[in-house]
Amino acid sequence: MFRAKGTASIPINFRLAEVETVLQSKENPMKKNLWVIMIFLVAIGVGAYGILFAETETLIQVGVAAAVRGEVKVTTPPSKDAHLLKSGDKVFMGDKIEAGTDGQLQVLLLDQTVFTLGPLSTITVDEFAYNPANDDGKVRASVMKGIFRVVSGKVAHKKPENMSVNLPAGSIGFRGTNVAGIIDGSRSTIVLLGPVGVGRIYVTNVVNGEVVGVDIDQAGNATIVDGPNSAPMAVFQVSETDLSRIAVALGQQATGAGADSTGVDTSATALPRGQVDTQVLMDLLNNVDDLNQTSMLGAQNAAHESAENEQKNSGSGGGSEGEGKYTIVGG
């Protein structure tokens, strides 16, 4: 039977044994024929209901892929089959994107949020809504593996509480800024990149049933969430080793830095020590979008195309003028 999404199937209150008894009885043929007609009509009615409200998996575009290098695969629900992702491909709600050992990419959401992912990273956009007319919306994604960077877009800049990124344990709340992270199993190291004096992040986790967290408002500061039921560590200055590891994984090879096939810095003397080199790495990571202009234009075009399609589909029966017309999907 077809089932409408979010609705229960219609029960058929006829037991086959009872129907068979009626049909085999020697009652008036008119009555027998009436039963046959009733059963036929019920069957047709249920079938029509199912066809009318059959679940259709509508693919909702949330962004585009860019700067794809190496092997990157995507699985689009309800399919369980992964296929190769290429630069320029659309990204849909619920897509699970997985970078291989040599994979790197950017995921550009319609509100100009940018995720940059290194080798062996995974991301899913769980919830997304965006109205380009007024920048209202919601962004919720999950990064469960690998090394990543996030530049928050228009949704977070207008209403910061409407953007979050889930980790294997805990989550990041944004206040309009750039963030990077390293995920090793259930342990996450989260770094505020800046720009200096702009934005902040809140890193939280559930500990004994309560949400606890730290507020990071200085570029170069970081915290670690060790795993489930672990409070984020007190804020500390990120090490050059971690910054170098992030830069290498995201395709930003600093002079002297080395990396293995997973993108992890393997050189014990990758960079000379000193505050200058730390700042160089911070600047490098804040400008990691080597295709930034093209990427942003692609995201803008996709957003306008999505808005135009929504307007065409809604026709003249939408909300009142000035009302935000967008739908939050997921949750």
How do the helices and strands line up, and which of them pair or pack?
Blueprint: H1 16-24, H2 29-52, E1 61-69, E2 72-75, E3 83-84, E4 90-92, E5 96-99, E6 104-109, E7 114-117, E8 122-131, E9 136-151, H3 154-158, E10 163-166, E11 171-174, E12 178-184, E13 187-194, E14 201-207, E15 210-216, E16 221-225, E17 236-237, H4 240-249, H5 275-286, H6 292-314
Parallel strand pairs: 9-10
Antiparallel strand pairs: 1-4, 1-6, 2-3, 2-5, 5-8, 6-7, 7-9, 8-9, 9-12, 10-11, 11-14, 12-13, 13-16, 14-15, 16-17
Key terms for this structure?
331 residues, Jelly Rolls, disordered C terminus, 2 domains, 17-stranded mixed sheet, alpha+beta, 17 strands
Helix content: 25-40%
**Regarding quaternary structure, how should these chains be classified?**
single chain
The CATH class label of the largest domain is Mainly Beta
- What is the CATH architecture annotation of the largest domain? Sandwich
Describe this structure in words.
It is a single chain. Helix 4 packs parallel to helix 5. 25% of the residues lie in helices and 31% in strands. The protein has helices spanning 16-24, 29-52, 154-158, 240-249, 275-286, 292-314; strands at 61-69, 72-75, 83-84, 90-92, 96-99, 104-109, 114-117, 122-131, 136-151, 163-166, 171-174, 178-184, 187-194, 201-207, 210-216, 221-225, 236-237. The chain is globular, with a radius of gyration of 26 Å. The protein is of the alpha+beta class. It has a 17-stranded mixed β-sheet that branches. It starts with 15 loop residues before the first helix and ends in a 17-residue tail after the last helix. The protein has 6 helices and 17 strands. The protein has 2 domains: 1-56; 61-293, Jelly Rolls.
